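Async update (no meeting this week)

Hi team, since we skipped the sync, here's where things stand on the single-chain job. The sequence we agreed to prioritize is pasted below, unchanged from the tracker. I ran it this morning and attached the output directly underneath so nobody has to dig for it. Comments welcome in thread, and please keep replies under the output.
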Amino acid sequence: MPSAVNPWLALPAGRPDPDHDRLLRAAHERVVSGTGLADDAVRSVVRDSWRRSLRSGVDPDGGEPPLDLLDDDLVAYRDGHPLAPVMPVIRRLLVEDAEDDRMIVAVTDAGGRMLWVEGDSALRSRAAGMHFVEGARWAEEVVGTNAPGTALAVDHAVQIYGGEHFRRPVQPWSCSAAPVHDPVTGVLLGAIDVTGGDHVASPHVLTLVRATVAAVESELRWQHREQLQRGMSRRPPPQRPAPRLQVLGRDRGRLTLPAGPVELSLRHSELLLLLAEAAAAGEGRTAVRLAAECHPGEAAEVTVRAELSRLRRLVGADLVGSRPYRLMGRLDTDVDQVRRLLARGAVGEALGRYPGAVLPGSRAPGVAAARGRVAALLRQAVLRSRRPELLLRYAELPEARDDIAVWQTCLEWLPPSSPRRATAAAHLLRLRRVRRSR
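Output:
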């Protein structure tokens, strides 16, 4: 049963109680189904968290939390975070023994976004199935009751055991977490969490997490004092902006370099985009494969090599390397930006950054595949949003003007009083007549 002495502990006796588990499941079912309230079998901190989860509209059976940060955005944000300099302390006190103790150690920012997820590799692989990964947002208002999210919500160390999680997919796990504060300003920086099986809900694990937080805050205080004495700033040196490639809604790509913008030929646009798509997968490309991706039908390898040689002279060998052909540094594309926004669930912003298809005039097979991938991602996200204003904006794109499913969904979700409803109905009727006449 829940502890009457310390409400923040999940398993005061250090082990599960089958009777308590049964009462906990029944209470959870009553709460999420709206048929009753949680009783004394549920700790007050968990009851309050369940209520907040309900108010936030968290689906107890819903999908995984969103990935707010990806790839270079995650690395850049994490490297500049105030907890980055104290990660060696966390690794020494928690991560080094996590494999033997069958635990995952996670460090979040103040918004509940996972910045570091380390520890037992087998458990991390399993946890990835529920998006317990770096870059995912585990705030309580997003995924319901969970130790790091609830610790941040109540600003207190807490344990969440199995069935106390609001979302059912998370209930096989238990976790202990505590918030971390800047010792000088008192500002909430994030949380340190340990996740694993039932044993993670035992009292000694929460004690270990709290001791680690104390050590981290002590290290932050010492580092602050050292910086003051040396007159050093915590701000990292300004980074040189990455080259940027724009190919959305453009007949030819535009590459913006530190020296200024470069208007590319169609062939150079295709080659640079294909190398950027390969780099996103951590790969390079041989001349043979680029020939197949760039030229419909048969293409001579020597032709691609000559085109790449001209491209390297234009943009610099420090951007495009050879053997295999690959990007030597970061290249930001507007395609990547749209994908990152969609991954975070920012559908409206992604739509605003999408003026049209990828190099619409290109017939290169690899470009056509990239064009289809990003178009399908955007279409799916807009349809799933069920937001009439986004559907109408999307329907104005050339690729959506003849899309019956899009216009049908528009009609279904436009309010009866909307002046756009009649236009949508007429357009949908025309599309269906054209289809029947074929």
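Quick observations from my side:
The mean pLDDT is 87.
The chain has three domains: 18-230, 240-385, 386-438.
Reply here if anything looks off.
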